[in-house]
């Protein structure tokens, strides 16, 4: 029986291999780089790619070459490593280890876009000095602290300085952060809305407001908070604003003025860091489980001189928490700003511009023919740091535009360790005679020997009169801040503007609250014409003080 051709496997594969090799030679497979440096594969005759100069011969032949080009992308430049502060809740984040991501998230009551704060942090990252101003009350002043370096504002400023010094190689030695703590004990937004410039300089880059527990939950104080933010935004450096909300548990309600501040802060896109959001759930739960447990209050709040618990002021540990929460927040914002800088040119940068993104309706609406288009607003106007043209407490319309207000203030509070060297503080002083009284019946700067740091412009006899120059601007409002007490023998005064004594206002220093000694701000006139006016205050013989006392104490006059 004959054998089948190629039945031997070795012989079979040899013949197949020779055939394939011949086919490859026939097709003449070439790999080469073209003149542009691109990797190319040529299948077929290589004639058109050889160095032959016989152009006539090339024209006579019909090219049979098919070319596939593969472009090799150059290796990108190494990406700049993230700064050290881009470590939120990573293994190196000590603040996150201390509080946990849950509590840190709760602390950020409102984050917002932080456009202004990112601008300030970019300035610092470039090696330029920044100034941080604090506008607050007794907590931020450091009530109960033995060392000013335990104050949250000091700790925070140190962190900001260290954060950028560690992350900025070439300019590390140039990182400079100046802290100006302009806090005044016993003050409310009603005072600070016009007098804050007496306590912090005009060229601040960042202002941190801490007045949440100083204000009662009253609408007119929230309106004052709005004026405060608008006036800060109008400063030369267009500063960023952060709202710090501390907690007090001694008042009739847990809710305080800060809860009304929140709506205003959101309207003006200013971030809020809240210590209450973090602490209160833990305190409520611990006392629910064991009503006699006051360990958390004892740890976070301060103590008076005899060791009693002070639920009005946080203590040293509370200050550390405020600084830590601010540190975590600021690091997050700085990191977000750094990432945005790295991505410039790689994504749409117009989302902060009016009309900068697609305002058309949903695709399904267009397909269904429900509406063809939505008109764009005024395109090209950046709204990332926009100050609303209307007040939050106004009715919306299309025409109202509130101009920037320039606060005017003269106050005795600048005398507390400041007026001797400050270029931005203005001492409250009456005009000379004949506008003001002279001799023994005049108003004079005075403080009680038990509290020499608290200075008042004080008059004692009926008929004593003090006159002050004031400058009104956008609102045309003039006010007087004075002391009220139920046990310090205070009388009453009549205050008016220019020659309009008839339409003046009565201010009573006495009230029924025996153990409450606080300042009160009273509006003397609304909607005065913009410009200079003279404010008069004269002590009345008629007094509400049961003992007939007539002493009257003024701490500030202001206008807006």
UniProtKB/TrEMBL annotation:
<feature type="transmembrane region" description="Helical">
    <location>
        <begin position="12"/>
        <end position="33"/>
    </location>
</feature>
<keyword id="KW-1133">Transmembrane helix</keyword>
<keyword id="KW-0812">Transmembrane</keyword>
<dbReference type="InterPro" id="IPR036514">
    <property type="entry name" value="SGNH_hydro_sf"/>
</dbReference>
<protein>
    <recommendedName>
        <fullName>Capsule structure designer protein</fullName>
    </recommendedName>
</protein>
<keyword id="KW-0472">Membrane</keyword>
């Amino acid at each position: 029986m004959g054998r089948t051709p190629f039945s031997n496997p070795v012989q079979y594969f040899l013949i197949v291999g020779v055939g394939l090799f011949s086919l490859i030679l026939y097709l003449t497979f070439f790999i080469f780089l073209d003149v542009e440096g691109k990797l190319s594969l040529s299948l077929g005759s290589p004639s058109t790619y050889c160095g032959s100069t016989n152009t006539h011969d090339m024209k006579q032949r019909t090219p049979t070459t098919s070319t596939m080009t593969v472009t090799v992308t150059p290796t990108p430049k190494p990406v700049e490593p993230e700064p050290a502060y881009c470590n939120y809740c990573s293994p190196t984040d000590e603040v996150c280890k201390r509080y946990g991501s849950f509590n840190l998230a709760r602390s950020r009551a409102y984050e917002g876009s932080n456009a202004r704060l990112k601008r300030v942090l970019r300035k610092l990252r470039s090696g330029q000095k920044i100034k941080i101003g604090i506008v607050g009350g007794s907590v931020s002043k450091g009530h109960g602290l033995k060392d000013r370096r335990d104050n949250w504002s000091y700790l925070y400023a140190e962190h900001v300085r260290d954060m950028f010094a560690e992350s900025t190689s070439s300019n590390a030695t140039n990182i400079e952060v100046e802290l100006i703590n302009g806090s005044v004990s016993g003050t409310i937004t009603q005072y600070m809305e016009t007098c804050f410039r007496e306590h912090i300089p005009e060229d601040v880059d960042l202002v941190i407001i801490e007045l949440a527990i100083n204000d009662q939950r009253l609408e007119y104080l929230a309106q004052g908070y709005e004026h405060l933010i608008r006036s800060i935004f109008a400063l030369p450096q267009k500063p960023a604003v952060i709202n710090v909300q501390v907690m007090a548990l001694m008042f009739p309600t847990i809710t305080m003025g800060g809860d009304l501040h929140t709506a205003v802060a959101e309207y003006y896109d200013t971030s809020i860091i809240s210590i209450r959001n973090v602490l209160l759930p833990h305190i409520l739960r611990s006392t629910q489980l064991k009503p006699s447990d006051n360990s958390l209050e004892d740890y976070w709040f301060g103590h008076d001189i005899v060791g009693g618990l002070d639920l009005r002021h946080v203590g040293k540990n509370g200050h550390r928490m405020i600084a830590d929460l601010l540190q975590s927040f600021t690091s997050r914002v700085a990191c977000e700003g750094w990432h945005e800088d790295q991505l410039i040119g790689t994504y749409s940068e117009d989302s902060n511009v009016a009309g900068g993104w697609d305002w058309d309706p949903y695709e399904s609406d267009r397909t269904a023919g429900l509406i063809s288009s939505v008109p764009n607003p005024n395109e090209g106007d950046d709204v990332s740091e926009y100050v609303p043209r209307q007040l939050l407490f106004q009715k919306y319309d299309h025409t109202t535009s509130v101009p920037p207000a320039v606060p005017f203030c003269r106050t005795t509070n600048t005398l507390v360790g400041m007026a001797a060297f400050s270029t931005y503080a203005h001492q409250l002083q009456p005009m000379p005679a004949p506008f003001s009284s002279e001799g023994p019946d005049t108003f004079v700067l005075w403080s009680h020997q038990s509290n020499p740091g608290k200075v008042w412009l004080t008059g004692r006899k009926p008929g004593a009169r003090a006159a002050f120059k004031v400058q009104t601007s956008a609102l045309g409002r003039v006010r007087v801040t004075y002391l009220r007490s139920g046990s310090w023998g205070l009388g009453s005064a009549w205050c008016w503007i220019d020659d309009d004594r008839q339409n003046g206002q009565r201010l009573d220093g006495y009230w029924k609250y025996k153990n409450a000694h606080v300042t009160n701000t009273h509006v003397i006139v609304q909607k005065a014409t913009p410009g200079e006016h003279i404010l008069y205050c004269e002590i009345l013989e008629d007094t509400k003080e049961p003992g007939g006392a007539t002493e009257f104490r003024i701490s500030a006059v202001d206008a807006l």
